[in-house]
Design brief:
Helix content is about 55%, strand content about 0%. By secondary structure, the chain is mostly helical.
Length: about 70
């Protein structure tokens, strides 16, 4: 699933996802649009999704993330 798929499944806005992940809403917008984000940031987003779904999701489970540090 893509980041947007997870976001929609949770019923979260971009702002809600950003708040839950502890990142700026611009970072979420960037990630959703395919711009590079850091692996640590992707991990924060994945952790927020994990808490929302009550099951473990890693950033590697999120299809289409463009990681800035090449991991």
């Amino acid at each position: 699933m893509t980041l947007n798929d997870y976001r929609i499944k949770l019923g979260w806005s971009r702002a809600k996802l950003a708040r839950e992940a502890g990142v700026d809403v611009r970072t979420v917008r960037d990630a959703l649009s395919g711009k590079p984000i850091y692996t640590a940031t992707a991990g924060k987003i994945a952790n927020a999704i994990s808490r929302g779904l009550e099951k473990e999701i890693t950033y590697e489970d999120i299809e289409g993330l463009n990681l800035a540090d090449g991991q």
